[in-house]
Amino acid sequence: MELIEKIKKTAPDATVSENGEPVVSVSAQELHQVAEALYADSEHPMDYLRDIVGMDWGETGLGALYLLESTWTGHRIILKTVTADREQAFLPTVSDLWKTAFIKEREVFDFFGIRFLNHPDMRRIFLREDWKGYPLRKDYDMNSNPLNMENEVNADITDEYFLKPDGTIADKKNIVFDQKDFVVNIGPQHPSTHGVLRMRTSLDGENICKVDPILGYIHRGIEKLNESLTYPQTLALTDRLDYLSAHQNRHALCMCIEKAAGIEISERAQYIRTIMDELQRIDSHLLFYSCLVMDMGGLTPFFYGFREREMILDIFEETTGGRLIQNYNMIGGVQADIHPTFCTKVKEFIAHLRSVIKDYHDIFTGNVIARTRLQGVGILSREDAISLGCTGGTGRASGWANDVRKHHPYALYDKVDFKEITYTEGDSFARYMVRMDEIMESCHIIEQLIDNIPAGEYKVKTKPILKLPEGVFTSSVETSRGEFDVVLESHGDKTPYRLHYRSTGLPLVHAMDTVCRGQKIADLIAIGGTLDFVIPDIDR
After folding, report:
1. Which residues contact 92 (CB under 8 A, 6 or more apart)?
2. For 505, which DSSP code?
3. What percent of the chain has pLDDT over 90?
4. Other CB atoms closer than 10 Å to residue 173's CB: what's the count?
5. pTM of the entire structure?
6. Cβ proximity of 213 and 538 under 8 Å
7. Which run of H or of E encompasses 210?
8. In degrees to the nearest 10, what's the CA dihedral of 476, 478, 479, 485?
9. Quick one: what percent of the chain has pLDDT higher than 70?
10. How many CB atoms are closer than 10 A to CB 508?
11. Cβ-count burial 387-425 (b if 16+ within 10 Å, e if not)
């Protein structure tokens, strides 16, 4: 309420919707002024822009939700703004306050056609430059883009829109790469981008000058598909986002729907969900270790990581039926009870992992080649990590304590003891060490829970067709790569009006330009490996 009162001093006409999460509506003209006041607030500085969620409110107009948080106090707030002009939709940029808005606003433009005044690069980011229309608008013609097999021409000149003194809008051209730049493509078929990611990289000799990510090669329109699915049906799509955080992604969506529907799940289900999330984190970090070492030329550690990871997948498969794709979390609990041997095998696995983790460090962590190629390379400052929205191990390696499990606990994370792993160096080696240390912390969390799973039902009964109350609802979890948010707007129907996922990887890919500038081209792959992004999560 204190923050809302401060907003009303800057924007007296601001209104608050109490349906679901409190959402403060401000006019497009006042948005930047309000954002600037919140960013500079002396008590609760909103220095972390969690996400920008583009919206089409039909006759009301086009707009966005801005999810803000103070890294100092943990306070959160949601701003809403709208423009009634659908043909010439403009909003002010906030990329001068938060660097992550640079790529988030391009995403909103790509799918909704909203242009941001004073944003220096209004190109599409996922779709082709010659794409017709904006797919997440409610009036989008699904037949407007027949299959196009022509080669796409990259736009190296982009538009920047600004307001002239007489109140009219003009534009100017900005150069992305000029003809003098030596630009090479990294990907989209490069094996070490871990998916179809393309980075146009300009070089001065061996030194990187600029990294321009080209995304969307496996874009599947998951957020558009959600609008025609019932709430139980939407769950299946979360497993295909960050497939190395499948349990955690689905956990977040289930929590959001359960919160909106007022569904209380059993304590047994909470225990099971928490244990599964931590096994998934270990699984992901083992794969991170394996692939990073292989990208840097090592082969034996690759087999080490896969050996232990297969043990986790065997445990998953016995209970959930899946190995990579996990469809275990359900609205109201979990799909089935744990396998009779689950607890025994989990304890045996943790004991085994503790006995072999020294081998991981002996063969790689202390290796002179690994240290030379990772230490002092790809440095990301704490301030840049926050401004770019680089959560998870990447942010914590720069000294930013951002673990959702600690700062906004859910499930059983407020009932277990664990350390939030942080380093201050901000380099590639620190990012590596955060994840290696987190493997041991995940083991510690599981050990506190595995012998104490209470009896009871694993899933409460729910209606096959759910209708959620009107409002905006959110939930956050700490996935293997950072903060994953679900933003759901319901209009009281059996399908969501809008269901958006905060990609953990999009800010990490955006950060490549910051951490790679001035580094050698030979370091790009190792830097990208320690940022640990997963492409389907970015493309969605």
Report:
1. 28, 31, 32, 116, 117, 118
2. S
3. 71
4. 8
5. 0.95
6. no
7. strand 207-214
8. 20
9. 100
10. 28
11. bbbbbbbbbbbbbbebbbbeebebbbbeebebeebbbeb
| pLDDT at position 189 | 79
pLDDT, mean over the chain? 91
Half-sphere exposure of 17 (CA within 13 A, CB side): 16
The residue among 55, 44, 47 whose CA lies nearest residue 4 is 44
Query: pLDDT tens digit string along 275-291?
Result: 999 999 999 999 999 98
Pairing mode, strands 333-334 and 15-17? unpaired
Question: Is the CB of residue 61 less than 8 Å from the CB of residue 84?
Answer: yes
pLDDT band at 118 (very low <50, low <70, confident <90, very high): very high
> Contact 274/450 with Cβ under 8 angstroms?
no
pLDDT of residue 242: 86
Query: Could you write out the DSSP letters of every residue in 39-97?
Result: HT-SSS---EEEEEEEEE-GGG-EEEEEEEE-TTT--EEEEEEEES-SSS-EEE--TTT
- 496-529 pLDDT per residue, tens: 999 999 999 999 999 999 999 999 999 999 999 9
Q: What is the mean pLDDT of residues 216-224?
A: 88
Q: What is the identity of the amino acid at 501?
A: Y
CA distances from 376 to 169, 366, 426, 428, 433 (A): 45, 15, 8, 7, 13
Residue 352 gets the label, from left (phi > 0), alpha (psi -120 to 50) or beta, of alpha
Phi, psi of 525, deg, nearest 5: -65, -45
CB 281 within 8 A of CB 287: no
Quick check: 95 and 119 in contact, CB under 8 A?
yes
CB 447 within 8 A of CB 350: yes
Tell me if 47 sits within 8 A of 70, measured CB to CB.
yes
CB atoms within 10 A of CB 243: 16
Residue owning tokens 């943990």 = 74
Amino acid at 214: I
Q: What's the residue count for the chain?
A: 540
Q: Please tell me the distance from the alpha carbon of residue 193 to that of residue 199, in angstroms, as a whole number.
A: 9
